[in-house]
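Subject: sequence -> structure tokens, single chain

Hey, anyone have a minute? Need the predicted structure for the following. Not urgent.
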Amino acid sequence: MELPDLVRQLFAAKQAKGLSFADLEKILNRDEVWIAAVLYRQATTSEDEAKLLVEALGLDRSYIDHLTNYPIKGLGPIVPTDPFVYRFYEIMQVYGLPLKSVIQEKFGDGIMSAIDFTMDVEKEVDPRGDRVKITMFGKFLNYKKW
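Reply:
Had a minute. Here:
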């Protein structure tokens, strides 16, 4: 996946400073997944958040404008080829309709918001191999009738 120059610069600065997403979470007081989304330009910051992030990454103030501008979101119209990202695509291909059916049976005709939404990633140690635990927490939105 070809990343924009800005994204590569942000990640290079993060690496040069030796910062983890957990380190940045403490500095910005925001979740590490959200911060990663900011660095990939899938989310936007307030000016104060941008200033903190730019300072933590040791970047010049010109990056503040980039971080506060509205990003263009999404991976594009193609099937992702990165194996990690593809697995989530595959999960939705296999379990998307079952999840939709179960959620709509419990909540009604609607969707889970990706705007009023949070996500958390945890590592669970398991003797059979460590596990990734992802919790998605989104507001349910009923489809409107008119």
